[in-house]
Design a protein that fits this description.
288 residues, alpha/beta, TIM Barrel, 8-stranded parallel sheet, two-stranded antiparallel sheet, 12 helices, 10 strands, 47% helix, 14% strand, globular
Length: 288
């Protein structure tokens, strides 16, 4: 159901508030440059720094503004199952195409707890759900066995696999009847080669055309072209993770003149030496 180049949208701020004008301009940028779907309020959208009201307003703004030009997949995860349910209900209310729902973080639930969390939400809201496994953020990894159990629930349709393990991705593709999307920039090409159907990409915030070209080349069987773009993107992918996401990607967008250089604590501006390296790579890619 979901495939192609999907962007993990940043949330721009100005003077402590969500910058609605900048956010709309980012949406326009993606409409014009081949992005297949928008994903607001995923990890890159700093949902943990937003109030619940702000979170819902960002989702609504993106969906309202883009209309039917692109599908909107709402970030609707939480470590509190009832909060995740409320966000998922909001996504349904605004007629989003689906939700991205991260494994509950900090709590470190068992695999049974992870299963019950998703099953509870899926039973109560009839909307396509993309599971999101990101163990370096959540402190726990969803196993392929748990994914296989969840894949039997009709409205759980995909997983964004963000671990560092190609073995994990291979097992999911082999054992589970579910669409696999890359959640790890450096492994996207490998995941596509294994049978993945796309990516929810951070790098797509600044080079949506290149991410689209790589993914669609692979989906069409042109792995030579996809490999070429993959290697071209390596320097960008490296500098965009020098510091905690979304600090580098928001800094890159600032340097490109698209948003203000503003974060919410505990996130803060990049170190000067890292900004210098980021500028160098952006210049080499003719982005600034």
């Amino acid at each position: 159901m979901f495939h192609g180049s999907m962007v993990a949208l940043v949330t721009p701020f100005t003077n402590g508030r969500v910058d609605k004008v900048a956010l709309k301009k980012l949406v326009d940028f993606h409409v014009q440059n081949g992005t297949d779907a928008l994903v607001p309020c995923g990890t890159t959208g700093e949902p943990s720094a937003l109030s619940h009201e702000e979170h819902k307003k960002v989702l609504s703004l993106v969906k309202e503004y883009v209309g039917d030009k692109l599908p909107v997949i709402c970030g609707a995860g939480s470590n509190n199952t009832e909060e995740a349910l409320a966000l998922t209900r909001h996504a349904k209310k605004i007629r989003a195409a689906g939700v991205l729902s991260i494994v509950p973080y900090y709590n470190k639930p068992t695999q049974e707890g992870i299963y019950r969390h998703y099953a509870y939400i899926a039973k109560r809201v009839d909307i396509p759900i993309i599971l999101y496994n990101k163990p370096d953020r959540t402190g726990i990894s969803m196993t392929p066995t748990t994914v296989a159990r969840l894949a039997k629930i009709p409205n759980i349709v995909a997983i964004k696999e963000g671990s560092d393990s190609i073995e994990q991705t291979s097992l999911i593709l082999n054992q589970c009847d579910i669409t696999v999307l890359s959640g790890k920039e450096t492994l996207t090409f490998a995941i596509l080669a294994l049978g993945g159907r796309g990516a929810i990409s951070i790098t797509a915030n600044i080079v949506p055309d290149k991410i689209h070209a790589m993914i669609h080349a692979a989906l069409e069987g042109n792995f030579e072209k996809a490999r070429e773009v993959h290697f071209e993107l390596i320097p960008l992918n490296k500098v965009l993770f020098m510091e905690t996401n979304p600090i580098p990607i928001k800094t890159a967008l600032f340097l490109m003149g698209k948003i203000k250089e503003e974060f919410r604590l505990p996130l803060c501006k990049m170190k000067k030496e890292n900004v210098a390296l980021l500028k160098f790579v952006l210049q080499k890619n003719k982005l600034i």
